[in-house]
Design brief:
80 residues; alpha+beta; Helicase, Ruva Protein, domain 3; 2 helices; 35% helix; globular
């Protein structure tokens, strides 16, 4: 099953996904995206927090990636 989402992010998210390493390997970045983003998006879908066509924003809180979904004019946290 495929879903369409609009994904927006802050530049600081890239540093967290790369593990703050400038020369991080592609494999490491892909693993971090899977672990820190994709699994949480799937869990949010299972809980009906986000749906097809949702706008999801990635931001950081220290070394943690925050996922938020747009509800009306505001963004609310996704905490699966």
């Amino acid at each position: 099953m495929n879903f369409e989402i609009n994904l927006v992010w802050d530049r600081s998210v890239l540093a967290v996904l790369a593990g703050f390493e400038v020369h991080c390997s592609v494999h490491s970045v892909k693993k971090n995206v899977r672990d820190k983003v994709v699994r949480r998006l799937c869990a949010a879908e299972g809980k009906k927090i986000r749906g097809n066509g949702s706008t999801v924003r990635l931001s950081t809180a220290g070394a943690t990636i925050r996922l938020q979904v747009k509800k009306g004019m505001d963004y609310v946290d996704i905490n699966p």
